[in-house]
Amino acid sequence: MVGNKFVNIGEIDALELITLDDTLKALVRRGKLWAFNTLFGDQWWADLFGVIQKADYSKSVTVSPSGIIQVIKEYMQRANDISGAVGEEMGSEGIMEMLSEGLSSALETNFNGSLQYILNVWKGSLPPDLSYAVSIGQRLDRVDHLYALSQIAPIGHSPQAILEALASGADTRLREKLATVKEQHAELIRAKNALMIEHVTQAHNYLANALNELVFNATAVIDQVHGMINAIAQEHLARLNQLEDNLEANKARYDAKLIDDTKYEQRLNEINIDIDATMETWNNWMNRIDALADRLVTKLDTIKTDIINTLKTAIADYESVINAVANKIRDAIVALDDDTILKDKALELYADLKAYRKAGFDYA
């Protein structure tokens, strides 16, 4: 019957014969594999990973192009070796597919993760990203040229993008270097302006007060002089009135024949002498007061001039000192050539990077 059986040869099922043949082949392969393991041991399998670990390296990458070729050749040879024991298909699948699939993201968190962790200790070579170029640019004035080139060469961007990243980092560095000195200069100028305004204001107030004092003091002095003049005038007027009374009294005595002509003439002369003495004393007082007023006016004018000149000199000296310091800082800022240095370094790296990219690698 052809229901449960495909082909019958006598009492033997052909399908069973095929199955038996696969079983025998599997047993034979297992025996060969056992013999292979006995002959070569676990070290042969461990060397599959040692091939990567021992791969040659270069200055720019931990597994060099020639090292990659060595790994491929070694894996193909080992795939051929194991194929002699387990067959070509299993040998190829067991090794070459292990290289592609076993190290893929399918086993990222266990087998592949462990393998990456182990190999990264010795052969880690994840290429840097564009942020490395920005970082290099931020210390472009302090980093060695060849070191910077070794860092930016493996970045997977065009030289133009790397140059822009370098320029961006260098611009940040330049701003940082100039920020402090510019702020110091601005603070100094603000302080100078504030103090200059304060000094000018104080000088203005002082001069205004001085002028007020001079005016009020002059008024007070004038009042005092007027008082002195009035007092002296009253005193001398009283003296003249007294002499006038004496004159009238002597005239009455003369008319009454109480004194003779000689005595009357003598007393008139005495009164005349007293009047001249009083007038001379008055004139002396007036001259002294006029001289005192002149000296006061001259003194006030001299003090006013000295005060103004002293304040003007102090303000000019202060401004000169502040300007000298501010000008030195300004000259230092102008003399800074950091922007030129950073630009030249960036362009030099850019030119070397393009030449470096054109050189290529030797895979032989």
Describe this structure in words.
The structure is a single chain. With 364 residues, this protein is mainly α. The protein folds into two domains: 8-125, no CATH class; 188-339. 82% of the residues lie in helices and 1% in strands. It is built from ten helices and two strands, in the order E-E-H-H-H-H-H-H-H-H-H-H. The protein has helices at 14-40, 42-53, 65-86, 88-102, 111-123, 130-138, 145-152, 159-255, 261-335, 338-359; strands at residues 8-9, 12-13. A two-stranded antiparallel sheet has the order 1-2. A hairpin with a 2-residue loop joins strand 1 (8-9) and strand 2. Helix 3 packs antiparallel against helix 4 and helix 6 (130-138) runs parallel beside helix 8 (159-255). The longest helix has 97 residues, at 159-255.
**Strand order in the largest sheet:** 1-2
Counting H and I runs of at least 4 residues, what is the number of helices?
10
User: How many domains comprise the coordinates?
Assistant: 2
How many distinct beta strands? 2
Segments where pLDDT lies below 50 for 5+ residues? 1-9
User: What string, H for helix and E for strand, traces the elements in order?
Assistant: EEHHHHHHHHHH
Largest sheet: 2 strands, antiparallel
Q: Structural class, from secondary structure content?
A: mainly alpha
- Strand share of the residues? under 5%
Percent of residues in helices = over 70%
Basic shape = rod-shaped
Arithmetic mean pLDDT = 76
Termini separation (Å)? 66 Å
What is Rg?
Answer: 60 Å
